[in-house]
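Friendly challenge for the regulars: who can give me the structure tokens for this chain first? No prize, just bragging rights.
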Amino acid sequence: MAARRALHFVFKVGNRFQTARFYRDVLGMKVESRSVARLECSGAISAHCSDYTRITEDSFSKPYDGKWSKTMVGFGPEDDHFVAELTYNYGVGDYKLGNDFMGITLASSQAVSNARKLEWPLTEVAEGVFETEAPGGYKFYLQNRSLPQSDPVLKVTLAVSDLQKSLNYWCNLLGMKIYEKDEEKQRALLGYADNQCKLELQGVKGGVDHAAAFGRIAFSCPQKELPDLEDLMKRENQKILTPLVSLDTPGKATVQVVILADPDGHEICFVGDEAFRELSKMDPEGSKLLDDAMAADKSDEWFAKHNKPKASG
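First reply, four minutes later:
Bragging rights claimed.
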């Protein structure tokens, strides 16, 4: 099978200022790129989610109604790092968490040091491993060590209701390799390559609840593989949330995308690698653009003036 890459995980965030502080000042990530209220790749993909709002002409006559922004943050460019896509929907203050996302683990003694200096809450859950939370309640596990590899992000952990069924899906259908497996603890570590962020599946009792804060994990593959991947899912009667589609971004690459759902409803986005590499180039002004936008953001005042309290998902 041709090379596939782990790209990013999408988080819905309700507090832009605290969120930016956590990812930049605590974890030490950098802003890779930012887009505001544009129907680009992520906007078009996200339109099928009930609490994402597709932008219409009418939206622009209302400063914040129906608009969203996204910010990509990571320890380096998405070509060789796993990053976080932070999606902020104006008007939504917070999201109800389910048990589907169980955390991201990264190795960074610097992040542990940053958290201590900033008095960001840390709980030691194992020797040298600290649990902390991003704004919104998303869990991160910080290993108090640094690795020679360029990307400190080690794994994303998702809950599954039937480990064997999930392994069949992720390995036999999506082509992932099993790196570790523990039947007793009902967990398995999967990946496409040794030097990439891994996917950890953790069995849970009582089913997987996505609530309103559910995110999406994204991978890339050679564009020519996307039609075959979609056909395979059809033959296997697996859920396809968004059939293969080409997304045009004016002045940039046209990216092909298909969005799937695993047996527990985890959303999985596969994009054509060649065009995505062009689209996801790092913006050297990303951090400044984010700071400027947050400084100019008067959405709280706007919602208060119009008697529109920010909703909870």
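The CA atoms of residues 80 and 151 lie 8 Å apart. The first helix runs from residue 16 to 26. Your move, everyone else.
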